[in-house]
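Page 37, top half.
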Amino acid sequence: MQQNKPLLIGVGQDFRGDDAMGLLLVRKLKPILSSVWDLVESNGDGTLLMELWKDRECVYIIDAVSGPKEPGELYHFSAHESIPPADWFRTSTHHWGIAEAIEMSRVLQTLPKALFFWGIEGRIFTHSDELSPEVNAAMEELEVLLLQHAQL
C-alpha cells in the first residue's frame, strides 16, 4: 500500500446481514479503484483502524450503522467536523470501534488530514448472509458517490 493514495476501509462482519455491507462494497470496488486508492477490509477494531490510517492524508470509512434513521438512509461525516455517535455501532463485536478510534486519533493528533465516514442505516444485524433490500439499494448509491470522489 502507498501512503499517498487515498485509503478506503470497509468495516463489517461477514454473515451478520447488513453489517457485511462495508466489506462487500470494498470487494466490489477493488477491481475498479485499486489503481488510484488502497482498499482494505476491517472488522472495526479501533486500534487496527488507527494503525491502518496512520500516516495517511485521506481516508474513507464505510460501515453499516444502527442509528435513528430508517434502514437504507445514508450518513456522511467529516471527522474534522463531527464523528458518528459511538452508540450507532452497538451491534459491533468490538467495544472500541470507529467513533473511539477517531476521537483517540484526534487527541493524539494522528487523525488524517481528511477522514470521511459514510454509513448506511442497517436493519438486519443477526446471522444472515444477505443484505436487507434497503441496504442493498443504498449500497449502490454509495458506490456511485465513492466513484465520484475517486473522479472515475
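Page 37, bottom half:
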Amino acid sequence: MPGPPALPKVREILSRRSGEEMQLNDRFLNPQMGRILRTLGFDKVWRGGEGAHLIDEEGERYLDMFGGYGVFAIGRIHPEAISALEEVMAARTGNLPQLGVTLLGGVLAEQLLARAPASVGAMVPANSGTEAVEAAIKIARAATGRRRVLYAEHAFHGLTLGALSLNGNAEFREGFGPLLADCDPVPFGDQDALARELARGDVAAFVVEPIQGKGVNLPPEGYLSAAQALCRQAHALLVCDEVQTGLGRTGRFLALERWDLEPDIVCLAKALSGGLVPVGAVLVSRPAFERVFDGMERAVRHGSTFGGNDLAAAAGLATLRVLERDGLIARAERLGALLLELTSPLVERYEVVREVRGAGLMWAIEFGPPAGRASRSLWDAVERRQAGLFAQLITVPLFREHKILCQVAGHHMNTIKALPALVVEESEIRRFAAALEQTIAAAQRYPLSLARFGVRTSLRAVAARR
C-alpha cells in the first residue's frame, strides 16, 4: 500500500488547496457542522481577519459580532500579540522543561494576580476554559475534603467530562453519562435554594458565571454577594468562571468587580491569548492552594503538559498590555452602554422583542411571541417543531444582507448574543444597531417572513444532505 503523499509547507497548502475547506471538513471533521453552515447560508470561505472583522475570499469585510466565542477581545490578528509569539520563537527559550520552571509563565501569573482580587494568591496554568474548570473542581474537592459541587441551571462551563458535569444544558449532557457524581444544579439567582443546599454541610464549591454566557443572563441584585457570604458561612469555596466574562469583556477587568466579590478561585481563558494560541489560568486562594500542594510528594498532583508554555504566556502578557495601553476595558464599558442605549428602545417598538440586556460588550436580545392570535398560533406551532427559529430570521439576513456575523445565544433559544472585539469602532456599533432594527421590522411580519425563511432553509437543508 503506498504511503501518504509528501506534505508541503503551510504556505503552499494555503495557496494550492484554497477552496477545499468544506470538503475536508465533511470528509474528516464534522459533516453535521457543514450541513448547518450550508443550511443557514453561512458556508463562506474566510481568507483572513482584522480587528473586529472577518474577510471572505472576495475581500468583503464582515463585522464579526460573534468574536470566536469571545476570544478576540483585542481584535483578530493583533500585531502586538503576533510580535510576542515571534519574539519567543526568536529567543529560542527553554520552553516546557517540565522538571524545571520558566520565566514567562511566572511573569504572567504575577501580572494576573496583581489585577485580581486579593483573595487569590497563586496561579495554576491550563490550556483552555474547560481545563481551568476541571482544575477548579479538583482543587475544591482536595482543599475542602468534600465531594459535592453546586452549579447554576443554564450554566456553561465547558465540554470535558468534569466541566460537563456542571453544564446546565441537557443538549450538551445527553448521551455522555454517567457524569461526575455529586454535582447538583441550583436555579441561577435563587439565594434561598443555594442556602438550602449549602446548609447540608457537604459542598466543596459553588461554581458560577458572574453573567451566564448562554443567554447573557445577569444576576439579580445582591445575589452574587449573598452567594459569597453563604459559601463563607458553609466553608465552601466560591468559584467564579470568568472564562467568557473576564479580560475586559464586561467593562471591568473581571466581571466580579461589579459586585466586589472576593472568590476563592477564578477561571480564565478565551481572550487571554488574543485568540492566537490555547491558554487558560486558574487563580486560587493561598489557603486552598496550600492544602492541595501541601508537600514535595504532592507537587505534581495536578498539572498539564502544555500548561504555562512560553507561547501562551507571551501572548497573555501582550494581551494584558494592549488592554491597558489602549484603554480597551473603559472602551468596552462605553460602547456597551451605547449599544444598550441604541437597542433597548426596540422593546417598546416591536412586540416580538422581549428584552435587551448586557454588560460592557457582552450583549443579548431576546424575542418572544407576538400578541395577535394568528401570529401567536403560528409562533407556537413553529416553536414546537424547531425551537429558536425566529432568532434565525434575524441572524441570517444580518449575515446575508448586512455582512454582520452573529448567532443565537444557545440551543433552542430565541436570543441573539454579541461578543464583538473590544476594538470595534463606534460607527460599527451604530451600524449593527441600525441593521438589527431593520431586520427585526421585516421579521415581525412573521407569517410571511417565516414562510419565506422556511422554504429557503428547507431547500438549503436538502442541498446540504446531498
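Margin note: The longest strand covers residues 353-359.
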